C-alpha cells in the first residue's frame, strides 16, 4: 500500500426506514420473518446470542467494518448511533480477539442501542448478561483487541454471510439474526401477516391431531412417487 488509509471512513448520512414499519416487526419470530422473505436472510448459524434469555430485538442497522483484532470502528459506531439502532460489526469471522465486551454493551445501553451483532467474537459474557443488551457473536474469548483501525462506519458490510446496509432492519431472537433490507421492509411486513395467519391455521389443525401435511398426502398418492 503506497499510502496509509484513514483510521476511520464514515458515511455521514443515510436513509432510515419508517419507524411505524419497524414497529410492526416487534415481537415477530425470526423464522416467520424468514418465511416472509422466501426462506433466506438469516446470518450464519454460528452467530448466536450470548444470553439466549435476552435475545429478542428489532432495530435499525448501523454497520461497521473492523480489522482483525481491532474495534476502532465499533467505537466510532457507538459515538454515531441513535436510540433504536443495532450496531452490526463485520469482523470477517476473525476469532483471535474479542471486538466487544461488557463495557461496549454498557455504553450501547446508555445510548439506546437495542442490540450488538458481530460475526467475530466477544468477551466478558457474565457482564454482558448482567447489562442486558442483546449481543450476538460467533464465539467468546478472553483475548482483547486493539483500537487502531482502519475501519468503516455506515458503509455496507457482509456480516455472518449476509449483506447489511445502513437502514436495513434486523430482527433477532434465540434462533439467530435476520436482516430485512430497507427496500423490502414494507413488502415483508405485509407478507408477515399472511405467514402468521397460515401458521395459526396449521397449528390449529396440528392441535386437533394432524400428523402430516395435505400436500405430502397428495404427493404420496401421485404418480411422482414410485413405491418399491
Please give the alpha-carbon distance between the first and last residues: 65 Å
When the domains are counted, the total is 1
By DSSP (H or I, 4+ residues per run), the number of helices equals 7
For the largest beta-sheet, the strand count, sense and barrel status come to: 9 strands, mixed
The CATH class turns out to be Alpha Beta
The helix content, as a percent range, equals 25-40%
The chain-level structural class is alpha/beta
Mean pLDDT: 95
CATH topology description? Glucose Oxidase, domain 1
* DSSP summary, beta strand count: 14
Overall radius of gyration: 20 Å
**Strand and helix order:** EHHEEHEEHEEHEEEEEEEHH
Unreliable stretches: none
Quick gist of this model?
The chain is built from 7 helices and 14 strands.
Give a structural overview:
This protein is α/β, with parallel strands linked by helices and about 230 residues long. The chain has a single domain (about 10-195), classed as Glucose Oxidase, domain 1 (3-Layer(bba) Sandwich), CATH 3.50.30. The protein has 7 helices and 14 strands. It has helices at about 20-25, 30-35, 70-80, 100-110, 125-130, 185-205, 215-220; strands at about 10, 50, 55-65, 85-90, 100, 115-120, 120, 135, 140, 150-155, 155-160, 160-165, 170-175, 175-180. Strands 1, 2, 3, 4, 6, 8, 10, 13 and 14 form a 9-stranded mixed β-sheet that branches. The protein has a 3-stranded parallel β-sheet with strand order 5-7-9. A two-stranded antiparallel ribbon has the order 11-12. Helix 4 packs parallel to helix 5. It is elongated. The mean pLDDT is about 95.
